[in-house]
Write a structure and sequence with these properties.
The complex is a heterodimer of chains A (about 80) and B (about 650).
Chain A (H helix, E strand, L loop, with lengths): L4 E3 L8 E7 L3 H9 L7 E7 L6 E5 L5 E4 L1 H4 L2 E5 L5
Antiparallel strand pairs in A: 1-6, 2-3, 2-6, 3-4, 4-5
Chain B lengths: L7 E6 L5 H9 L16 E7 L2 E7 L11 H12 L4 E7 L3 H14 L3 E6 L1 H6 L2 E3 L1 H8 L3 E3 L8 H13 L12 H13 L10 H10 L4 H9 L1 H18 L3 H20 E3 L7 H9 L5 H40 L4 H38 L1 H14 L8 H9 L1 H6 L7 H10 L6 H15 L1 H25 L8 E4 L7 H35 L3 H15 L7 H7 L3 H12 L6 H4 L2 H13 L4 H10 L2 H25 L1
Parallel strand pairs in B: 1-3, 1-4, 4-5, 5-7
Antiparallel strand pairs in B: 2-3, 6-8
Helix pairs in contact in B: 3-11, 7-8, 7-10, 9-10, 13-14, 13-19, 14-19, 14-21, 14-24, 18-28, 19-20, 19-26, 21-24, 23-24, 26-28, 27-28
The chains are: A alpha+beta (about 80), B alpha/beta (about 650).
The structure holds guanosine-5'-triphosphate and magnesium ion.
């Protein structure tokens, strides 16, 4: 699965992921950048709220945690990074 | 404008970095603080006397970058750009250094005197982040002071360093330059901006803002006076975008990001593999996808029961001297005018003290604790899905929770919502949340006479009403709300000191603003009764009071006063019926008690809430809110009358 481009919403929990691209409109891209989520960053999907609620993602280098709605998680493209690094 | 004899210092920083805590440490508690990004939504000013001179300090809302996204951020930046301060103190959460430096780099571009307060050093150490302060100072070219705001560490150094910067030391940074071709384009645009066009601080910074910010007031001015320059901006933006195949604002953001990363790597060492702390353990339960929900219900119930368990006996104790005093006054043979005055005065003072405060105080403590713990954003995470049902998302949850304390700051807090539609809807729903005044009424009537379980049910019932009204309203406001993006700050075990100073601050404002209204209202009612004017008002309201709600006609007047302060309805109820608190169940049936409480707590936003909706949202929203509350209250109270 490593190296394959997937949406954050399809990504596995608890494994390092690299943000490849954010395909949303300018508003979303600006907001995510401002919160410290840039293309190239390593992140981890930590927890999903029930009933189709948001997803908790943590930036592995800055330790910032952000809750993003499922609609937003559709728009964040990531790839799974192999465990050793 | 900044003046030399009273220099102006502003606190700028990312949300939740501790600006307000620092501000309070210097000026005494006067700005709201909480472990939630977006606590401060408006500016707070203070003048302090330090080092033999008066300085003016301003606490601003947090902002992630200098390109605002929501009304609170816009307010911060408008202040920063329109009234250039003598010194900016950039407050940084040291445990999030890498990200925070991006804003710092943006501030450097302004080339205004700047000092960095490296706050939350304690948290950074806990996380295993070691920061070389001197090196950071050298690389940035401005003073960097380490602080722990909530314990007052480093405040003295920060003040004396700031005074130095105001007097002699040169704390004006140089803007960092970017990679070759990007820098070249920015420079060329900067040079074509006329010398005298100081829209924001300096020409390079103006150029940057023209390129990356959506619409700033600079664009407006420029369109007016130099339309040809606007075209030039477009050209440079296109050149940049061709160069990197990215939107221009992302190119500049990426430049800062890389600089920030390089800075971070050269000044900070991160030790991995630290132990998992108590906070993380608690957090993993609070945020657990399954356990989180029972946790939420448990916290909510505990919140309610604790207030009752503390407030109830306290009320019992405080009521005794009060009823004794009331009885004594009624026996006096004073002139009727004076008697009415004294009676109203004692009702107002005693009611506030014996009936309202016993519930208000524990509520303040618990709210304060939850806010400082960081639970607001966690509840937002858990309840996001539920909020979709009423056409909102999780970011409104913190505002609703604040509403349990007081609706006024709750409505202010909607400034962190990006979409005006969400603000409108949230502000219309907040007045249905039982605030501390209404909690006092519910506990003092329902819990005191019918038992805590009844009150608990009543409380939940009110939340269901919020949900139903929300559902209804969202039918008319179809526009989809954009998805949730909310930072979850690290969990912080609240310090007793912050919790206490917060409670005292809120208590003081209750004594200053709310209590006088309660007392004046009670005295007003006494005089109305003396002049027998209450009869007319009661008569006019009797179709509603007696006809629809089935309550004694005498209670009509209490509703009028309930608009001023909700507590007044409760206190006046006794005054209007001419009875003592304990004999309430002898005069009213159980059903009447419930109907009255429901109606009073729902029927209208109180005066301050009405004013704040008018000011913050619109006149239309404020009037709509009144209409909505009256209809819902009448409908619900009538239903309750039939059921119970
Ligand atoms: N451990 C620790 N906690 C701190 C420190 N400074 C502030 N806090 C806590 O951090 C939280 C945020 O502080 P605030 O002062 O409200 O932050 P702010 O920057 O004003 O936040 P906004 O108004 O939302 O932009 C509060 O719960 C404070 O008690 C610190 O140095 N160490
Ligand atoms: Mg603040």
């Amino acid at each position: 699965m490593a190296g394959q481009l997937i949406r954050l919403i399809e990504a596995p929990q608890g494994r390092p992921l690299r943000i490849v691209n954010i395909i949303g409109g300018h508003g979303i891209r600006r907001r995510l950048r401002a919160l410290g989520f840039h293309p190239g960053d390593l992140i981890e999907r930590n927890s999903d709220a029930l009933f189709g609620g948001p997803i908790l993602v943590k930036n592995l280098s800055t330790e910032v945690s952000v809750a993003v709605g499922r609609g937003i998680a559709q728009k964040i493209m990531v790839e799974v990074v192999d465990g050793q690094s | 404008m900044a003046s030399p004899d009273r220099p102006l210092i502003v606190f700028v920083g990312q949300p939740n970095s501790g600006k307000s805590t620092l501000f309070n440490a210097i000026s005494g508690y006067r700005a709201q603080t909480a472990n939630f990004p977006g606590t401060t939504v408006t500016h707070t000013h203070s003048e302090v006397y330090v080092g033999g001179q008066i300085i003016r300090i301003v606490d601003l809302p947090g902002t992630y970058s200098l390109n605002p996204a929501d009304p609170a951020e816009k307010a911060a930046l408008a202040h920063l750009f329109q009234e250039p301060p003598d010194l900016i103190i950039n407050v940084i959460d040291a445990s999030l250094l890498g990200r925070s430096l991006e804003l710092t780099l943006e501030l450097l571009e302004m080339e205004q005197p700047l000092v960095v307060a490296l706050n939350m050093i304690d948290l950074a150490e806990k996380k295993g982040i070691k920061i070389n302060r001197e090196k950071l100072e050298n690389l940035l070219g401005i003073p960097v002071i380490a602080t722990v705001a909530n314990r007052g560490w480093g405040i003295k150094e920060l003040i004396s360093c700031s005074l130095d910067c105001l007097k002699k030391r040169d704390c004006r940074p140089k803007a960092p330059s970017w990679t070759g071709d990007v820098e070249k384009h920015i420079q060329s645009l900067a040079e074509s901006i006329p010398e005298d066009f100081h829209c924001v601080h300096n020409r390079r910074f103006t150029a940057i803002k023209l390129i990356e910010a959506g619409e700033t007031f600079c664009h407006e001015i420029l369109k007016e006076i130099r339309p040809e320059l606007m075209q030039r901006v477009e050209v440079v933006r296109n050149q940049l975008e061709l160069l990197r195949h990215l939107p221009a604002f992302e190119i500049l953001a990426a430049e800062r990001h890389h600089l920030a990363l390089k800075l971070f790597e050269s000044v900070a060492k991160v030790e991995r593999g630290k132990r998992i702390g108590l906070e993380e353990k608690i957090d993993s339960i609070l945020m657990h996808p399954v356990l989180g929900y029972p946790g939420l219900i448990l916290i909510f119930s505990l919140f309610f029961f604790l207030i009752f368990l503390i407030g109830n006996p306290l009320e019992g104790i405080l009521l005794r001297p009060w009823s004794w005093l009331t009885a004594w006054i009624q026996q006096q043979s004073w002139p009727s005018f004076f008697l009415a005055f004294m009676d109203g005065l004692i009702q107002g003072i005693g009611g506030g003290l014996a009936i309202v405060l016993p519930y208000f105080l524990p509520l303040l403590f618990l709210m304060s604790f939850l806010e400082d713990l960081g639970y607001l954003s966690r509840a937002a995470f858990l309840l996001d899905a539920l909020m979709h049902r009423i056409g909102l998302h999780g970011k409104s949850v913190p505002s609703f929770i604040l509403g349990f304390g007081c609706n006024v700051p709750a409505i202010m807090s909607t400034r962190i919502l990006e979409s005006p539609r969400d603000r409108f809807l949230t502000s219309l729903l907040i007045p249905f949340i039982p605030c501390s005044a209404r909690t006092a009424i519910i506990l003092a009537i329902i819990a005191f006479f019918l038992g805590p379980w009844w009150a608990m049910g009543f409380y939940f019932f009110q939340l269901i009403i919020v949900a139903l009204v929300g559902n209804l309203l969202s039918l008319f406001l179809k526009e989809p709300s954009p998805g949730l993006i909310l930072e979850i700050p690290s969990l912080k075990i609240p310090s007793l000191k912050t919790v206490f100073s917060k409670v005292i601050w809120q208590l003081r404002s209750f004594v200053q603003f709310a209590w006088p209204i309660i007392i004046a209202g009670s005295i007003g009612l006494s005089f109305l009764q003396l002049a027998r004017a209450d009869i007319w008002i009661n008569w006019a309201l009797s179709p509603l009071i007696k006809g629809v709600l089935g309550l004694p006609i005498n209670l009509g007047i209490t509703l009028i006063f309930g608009f001023l302060r909700k507590e007044l309805s409760l206190l006046m109820m006794l005054q209007a019926l001419g009875i003592e608190y304990h004999s309430l169940p002898e005069v009213l049936t159980r059903s009447q008690l419930v109907v009255f409480t429901a109606f009073v707590s729902l029927f209208i936003p109180c005066l301050s809430t009405f004013v704040i909706i008018w000011r913050e949202i619109s006149r239309r929203a404020a009037l709509l809110s009144i209409l909505l509350n009256i209809s819902v209250a009448t409908f619900v109270a009538f239903l309750l009358r039939l059921i119970i």
